[in-house]
UniProtKB/TrEMBL annotation:
<feature type="active site" description="Proton acceptor">
    <location>
        <position position="80"/>
    </location>
</feature>
<keyword id="KW-0732">Signal</keyword>
<dbReference type="InterPro" id="IPR036526">
    <property type="entry name" value="C-N_Hydrolase_sf"/>
</dbReference>
<keyword id="KW-0325">Glycoprotein</keyword>
<dbReference type="Pfam" id="PF00795">
    <property type="entry name" value="CN_hydrolase"/>
</dbReference>
<dbReference type="InterPro" id="IPR003010">
    <property type="entry name" value="C-N_Hydrolase"/>
</dbReference>
<protein>
    <recommendedName>
        <fullName>CN hydrolase domain-containing protein</fullName>
    </recommendedName>
</protein>
<keyword id="KW-0378">Hydrolase</keyword>
<dbReference type="InterPro" id="IPR012101">
    <property type="entry name" value="Biotinidase-like_euk"/>
</dbReference>
<comment type="similarity">
    <text>Belongs to the carbon-nitrogen hydrolase superfamily. BTD/VNN family.</text>
</comment>
<dbReference type="InterPro" id="IPR040154">
    <property type="entry name" value="Biotinidase/VNN"/>
</dbReference>
<dbReference type="Pfam" id="PF19018">
    <property type="entry name" value="Vanin_C"/>
</dbReference>
<dbReference type="GO" id="GO:0015939">
    <property type="term" value="P:pantothenate metabolic process"/>
</dbReference>
<dbReference type="InterPro" id="IPR043957">
    <property type="entry name" value="Vanin_C"/>
</dbReference>
<dbReference type="GO" id="GO:0017159">
    <property type="term" value="F:pantetheine hydrolase activity"/>
</dbReference>
<feature type="active site" description="Proton donor">
    <location>
        <position position="179"/>
    </location>
</feature>
<feature type="signal peptide">
    <location>
        <begin position="1"/>
        <end position="22"/>
    </location>
</feature>
Length: 497
């Protein structure tokens, strides 16, 4: 008996899908770059001096690109500020800027370098991509003239943008993104009048791109993933690590898991500013990462990723983040709670006084539940369960709900929440959940020495963050980091420009 036409069509489609999944991967690279910085100056340098510095940095990046190509990489991401550094004024950064056109112009700077005026940086980046047959992602500065007919035009007659560019293996400019959420020190740049949601298609999936501080906000980060359905996010960053929740490797890997996408994160490397931490992250955890506060050198990372992670057999089902926490009664009364600060946010804490147990701590609308068992209770280490439900207002303003199990800096409870990099206590099990008012929750597990724990924990459909087995290393923190984007102030009031 011959199968019906619909069944035959379905079988052919299923076979084609399986074949595509079997080979649908790509090799990604990120390079953490120890940027060669310009000398401090109050006056702009000449264009030739600016280009000389940028060429020194591009010499290093070109070496990393060649090495990545030799190892089979299809794309490489380099860091924010990776070509000229940071801490400029509007005036002193100007010699480093170029006019970057809309990619719709179909331009290959390597073969047509003067089409849009002098563009030596774009020309060289384009040639790096073309000569090595690889996608190259870099961060440079864009300049756009304006005049009095534009009420928003700066007094110096130009807009200046922190800009990501992407060149394809032919050297063609295929993406340009102007950073929307500027960090507090980026007074040399303007933000675009409207947020840009930049995507482009590749043979290995749909890609999106944004920069550093953008990852904490709805636009463009959530829009790219939830609305435009990108498979992979490219993420140049200059990330200063802040324990216990916002180290680069910790938060970026958690964001990729929470959003269900690949994230290629390339950080700058500067130990004096606590800048380190790059990685290639998939929805099921870090494929590879790098965190080093001792060496002053750059580092290349390479790993294989699924081109379409949502179609992967390993793709996780949707999580109802508050389902479990709302279904149970409080594990404990709040008669022993105390408060403490984490990155200037006032948390409510309760101490883990026993080797194992069940605890609850609440703040406003958020209750956090923890079940745990330590491998052994030490007298010289204190752990707490903490909750925060409120507006964070330090380097920007954004609304958070956080449940966290964390180690205190010392046995003095007043130190709970202060940065800690080392621990000695292992846990045989943990299960953390919370009554979150958002679907955007990012699961973090951080071990002794700022190490990740890929494959050692899982997120259940009911919102519990659980250990699979005992922790292989001493524990610094287990955290559910929730963002309530709908409570944020309108841009630009939420940032510090």
């Amino acid at each position: 008996m011959l199968p019906s036409q619909p069944l035959l069509h379905a079988a052919v489609f299923a076979l084609a899908a399986l074949q595509a999944l079997a080979s649908d991967t790509f090799i990604a690279a990120v390079y953490e770059h120890a940027v060669i910085l310009p000398d401090a100056t109050d006056e702009p340098v000449s264009p030739d001096e600016a280009l000389a510095l940028m060429n020194r940095n591009m010499d290093v990046l070109e070496g990393a690109i060649k090495e990545a190509t030799q190892q089979g990489a299809h794309i490489i991401v380099t860091p924010e500020d990776g070509i000229y550094g940071w801490l400029f004024t509007r005036e002193t950064i100007y010699p480093y800027l170029e006019d970057i056109p809309d990619p719709a112009v179909n331009w290959i700077p390597c073969t047509d370098p003067t089409r849009y005026g002098p563009a030596p940086v774009q020309e060289r980046l384009s040639c790096m991509a073309r000569n090595n047959s690889i996608y190259v992602v870099a961060n440079i500065g864009d300049k756009k003239p304006c005049n009095s007919s534009d009420p928003g035009c700066p007094s110096d007659g130009r807009y200046q943008y922190n800009t990501d560019v992407v060149f394809d293996p032919e050297g063609k400019l295929v993406a340009r993104y102007h950073k929307y959420n500027l960090f507090m020190s980026e007074t040399q740049f303007n933000y675009p009048k409207e947020p840009e949601a930049i995507t482009f298609e590749t043979p290995f999936g749909k890609f999106g791109i944004f920069t550093c501080f953008d990852i904490l906000f709805r636009e463009p980060a959530v829009v790219l993933v939830s609305e435009l359905q990108v498979d992979t996010v490219l993420f140049p960053t200059a990330w200063m690590n802040v324990l216990p929740f916002l180290t680069a490797v910790e938060f970026h890997s958690a964001w990729a898991m929470g959003m269900g996408v690949n994230l290629l994160s390339a950080n700058t490397h500067n130990i004096s500013l606590a800048m380190t931490g790059s990685g290639i992250y998939a929805p099921d955890g870090a494929r590879t990462y790098y965190y080093n506060m001792k060496s002053g050198d750059g580092h290349l990372l390479i790993a294989e990723l699924d081109s379409h992670p949502r179609l992967s057999p390993a793709s996780s089902p949707a999580v109802s983040w508050s389902s479990y926490a709302l279904s149970i009664k409080r594990f404990s009364l709040n008669d022993r709670d105390f408060s403490g600060l984490i990155f200037h946010d006032r948390f409510t804490f309760t101490e883990l006084t026993k080797p194992e147990g069940n605890l609850t701590v609440c703040q406003k609308d958020l209750c956090c539940h923890l079940s745990y068992k330590m491998a052994g209770k030490r007298e010289d280490e204190v752990y707490v369960l903490g909750a925060f439900d409120g507006l964070h207002v330090v380097e920007g303003q954004y609304y958070l709900q956080i449940c966290t199990l964390l180690k205190c800096k010392s046995t003095d409870r007043n130190t709970c929440g202060q940065p800690v990099e080392t621990a000695q206590t292992k846990f045989e099990m943990f299960s953390l959940s919370g009554t979150f008012g958002t679907n955007y929750v990012f699961p973090e597990v951080l071990y002794n020495g700022v190490q990740l724990a890929p494959g050692e924990f899982e997120v259940l459909c009911d919102g519990r963050l659980k250990s699979k087995h005992g922790t292989s290393k001493p524990l610094i923190t287990v955290t559910l980091f929730g963002r309530l984007y709908e409570k944020d102030l309108p841009h630009p009031l939420r940032t510090s420009q």
